[in-house]
Structures are given as C-alpha cells and as structure tokens.
Design brief:
Blueprint: H1 9-21, H2 28-31, E1 36-40, E2 43-46, E3 51-54, H3 57-60, H4 69-79, H5 91-102, E4 112-117, H6 120-135, E5 139-143, H7 161-167, E6 174-177, H8 195-208, E7 217-222, H9 238-248, E8 253-256, E9 280-283, E10 294-299, H10 319-334, H11 337-357, E11 362-368, E12 371-376, H12 387-400, E13 402-403, E14 405-407, E15 413-416, H13 424-439
Parallel strand pairs: 3-13, 5-6, 5-7, 7-8, 8-9
Antiparallel strand pairs: 1-2, 2-3, 4-10, 9-10, 11-12, 12-15, 14-15
C-alpha cells in the first residue's frame, strides 16, 4: 500500500539525519531509501505510512517473520529475568542448548558439542579456529563466490576481493576452488552433471600431489547453497563428494549454514538436502530471530583439544537471543512450516520460471524452498550480467511496495528470501509486482 511515492518527506528527513550522523559506508539505506516505523510478519511500514511486502527478511534473519507472536512472548518473558549472564548457566541457556542439540543434522545428534558466538562471521571464525586447533594445520579450502563474513580473522575466506581491500589484510592460508555454478562454470565439462565431479577430482589431485601447492590442510569450508554468491544450488553429489574427501584425508568439513539454516531450504539445514553430515556447522541469522546470536556445533572429540577460554566473547549466548532461539525451534517443531516452505517454494519457483521465460533479461532461475535466485542479464543470448538492470528492477519493486534485494558475483541476482511464514496473498501480490517490474524493461 503506497500512499506517497517513496521516499516520502519524513523518510527523507530521517535519511538526511542519518547521513549527517552516521558513516557513509552503510549500504542498505541506498538500496532501500526509506525509514522504518514498524514491522509485522511479512510486512514493513515506513514513517510516511507506506506498507511494503518484505522479501528480504533482514537477509534471512527473520525466517519466522517480524515480531513472530510466539517468539515475542518468549522474549518478553525473558526481559523480566536476566539480559546478560556470561557463560553461567540459566534455565534459558540450558533449554536453548537442549533444543539446538535436538535439531542438529542426524549424523551430529548426540555426538556434538556447542560453542556459542555472536555473529555469523564470528561463528565461521570460531569454526576455522577449532579446525586449525584440532588438526595443527593452517590452510583452509574455500570456494569462489563464498561469503563467510568480514572479521579480520575470516575475511580472507570470503571470495570478494573488495572486502579484503576494505579490511587491509592479505589472503593467507586459503586455497580457493570453483563452486559448481552451472550458469557460469569456468571449466570445460561435457555436461552439467560433471561440474561437481571436476571440482572434487581437482581437490583430490591437490591433496595427493606434493607439488600442487596445497599443504597442511586444516579444513574444507563450504555453503550448501551459496548465498551472497548468487543463490547457487550445486549438483546433489557436490556436498557428499566433499564429505568423502574429508573422511579419506581426515580433514574437517565445515558447513556454513548461516543463511541456509533454520528452514530456509525446506529442510532444517541445507546440508540435509543431500544427507551430508558436517564435522563443524556454523549457525547464525534466524537462530536469534533478529537478536544477535550464533554458534558452532562440532564433533565431541574435538572438544578434548580446546583449552579454557577458547574463542572468548562477553556477548556470547545472550539470554534474550537464546529465549528467542528456543521459541523459534519450538514453533518450527509444532507447525508444518518446513513442508509449507517446500510446497510454496516450488510454486514460487515455477512462477519465477514462467516470468523468466517471458522476459528478455532473466537468464536463469535457481533455488530451493524460500531461497530462489533470478539472474539478470543484458540478454539471454550473451548472458552478460547486468547489475544496473537488477538495481533498476529492485528500485521499481520498492516504489510499488515490494522489498527484494540483490546478490551474486556481479551483483545481478534478485533473490527471494521472504519470511517462511508469509501469507499466500502477500506472496501472490509480490509476484505480481515482481512481474511488472521485470517486464517493464
């Protein structure tokens, strides 16, 4: 419901004040130039009275929607108890730990330890630290297109070179391989089914050849579906292939579930799509339902090599976040949410594919569940990526009342990441706005 063309006068006023008071390095006010008044479920209201359908979900932080009533009740209850407790046990902490253990991938249940962290990047940094500690080695294999955070200790594992430039660090102890990105796979293959096999075969070569340049391997770090890289879904044999290599060479497999976890793919974890068990799993975003909270879970035997004070942080395990996390898991267990995501996700993907077939500028639609990418190109014949067109579509949707964000190697992928609880009427209305924007080019 757009009552005044965004940004409205009150939004412009607050945006101007923010620009004066806060660093120009912020990015989201440039993508979505408005000021938020309130949000509920899958809608956001700005200070000028405009109401938007939210297909961003705080970048998959709000899988259960804004202010989910079930989660809100749990947080309100915790507000009257304790807000900060270090690592000292509380009933809230134990309840959360029990819940998170109960939903770990099948191969990890009853065989894991948990270490609480604060952000997604912090969880990946902790995971790599654990892998390096237990192996006594340094080098980590990561993948093109990967995003694992921008902490000083983990930014080198994120593929985009400009984050390294910003951080002022060099890329050390990282060996990067292609991710099986079918639409733009850089190596020659006879058919798409061979892409993951080529990557796995090359990884095996690196490990077997003393002159390959890959030595003292501490771990393999991978996203089940690449998030910021462009919502890239690898072939089904990719993660199982990495699992086999990890077992054969006794190398920890670290699975980054920061964006794919908590039901986003229609499974609780993205790695469950291919029944792949990690040695270490990284969890963040929706685990705290909008309250900063993250963690890693890892094989119990790894714990024997960790000393007191390993990977410290005073904000780890915030009680409000853990109350939200417990409620989120309970909500997902008590509802048919995962089946809903699978069913509605497939329906939505079919609609995106229809629109792509009828458009000039959507070269590929890919995704699983509520994690769907639409790759925008100058033309389907050249496949040349167009960030400018993608940004134009985003702005057009914004002005019509739909929030949809971009990602990808070239910033040209429009990604669907609505709350998993979105009402079907809002989903359909959003698809109508999306179609109008795409066909306006």
């Amino acid at each position: 419901m757009i009552v005044v063309k965004p940004p409205g006068p009150r939004s412009r006023e607050l945006l101007a004040k923010q620009s004066k008071l806060e660093t120009k390095a912020v990015i989201y006010p440039k993508a979505f130039p408005f000021a938020i008044d309130s949000a509920s479920g899958a809608t956001v209201k700005d200070v000028d009275g405009n109401l938007y359908i939210d297909w961003v979900s705080g970048v998959s932080v709000l899988n259960l929607g804004h202010r989910n009533p079930f989660v809100e009740e749990a947080v309100r209850s915790q507000l009257g108890k304790v807000w900060h407790a270090l690592e000292i046990p509380t009933e809230t902490r134990i309840a959360f730990l029990e819940r998170i253990h109960s939903v770990l991938p099948p191969g990890m249940k009853g065989k894991a330890k948990v270490l609480l962290t604060v952000t997604g990047g912090d969880s990946v940094e902790a995971a790599v630290s654990v892998a390096r500690r237990v192996t006594g080695k340094r080098t980590v294999v990561a993948f093109e297109g990967a995003y694992h955070g921008v902490h000083q200790g983990v930014v080198s594992l994120t593929a985009s070179s400009h984050y390294l430039d910003y951080a002022g660090v060099s890329r050390e102890n990282v060996f990067r391989l292609p991710y099986p990105y079918s639409y733009r796979f850089p190596l020659p293959v006879e058919n798409k089914d061979d892409e993951s096999k080529v990557v796995i075969r090359y990884l095996e070569h690196l490990l077997e050849d003393d002159h390959s340049g890959l030595d003292d391997l501490a771990g393999i770090l991978v996203e089940p579906i690449e998030g910021e890289g462009g919502y890239i879904v690898p072939p089904e044999d990719f993660l199982p292939g990495l699992r086999e290599v990890a077992e054969r060479y006794q190398v920890p497999l670290i699975v980054d579930e920061v964006q794919t976890g908590f039901g986003r793919t229609g499974k609780f974890w993205g790695c469950e799509l291919t029944a792949t068990t990690p040695d270490i799993i990284c969890v963040s975003k929706s685990v705290g339902a909008g309250i900063p909270l993250s963690l890693i879970a890892y094989r119990s035997e790894y714990d024997e090599k960790l000393e007191e004070g390993f990977h410290l942080g005073t904000y780890r395990g915030n009680p409000l976040g853990m109350a939200a996390g417990t409620a989120s898991i309970d909500y997902m267990k008590r509802t048919n949410l995962l089946e809903r995501v699978r069913t509605l996700g497939e329906k939505t993907k079919v609609e995106f594919e229809r629109i792509a077939d009828e458009s000039k500028n959507v070269g590929e639609v890919r995704g699983v569940g509520f994690m769907i990418g639409n790759e925008v190109v100058e033309s389907k014949e050249t496949r040349k990526p167009s960030k400018a067109l993608a940004n134009g579509f985003r702005r057009s949707m914004f002005e019509q009342g739909l929030l949809m964000h971009t990602c990808g190697h070239f910033g040209n992928v429009l990604r669907f990441m609505a709350p998993l609880t979105i009402e079907e009427i809002l989903l359909d209305e959003g698809l109508g706005i999306y179609e109008r924007a795409i066909k306006s080019a």
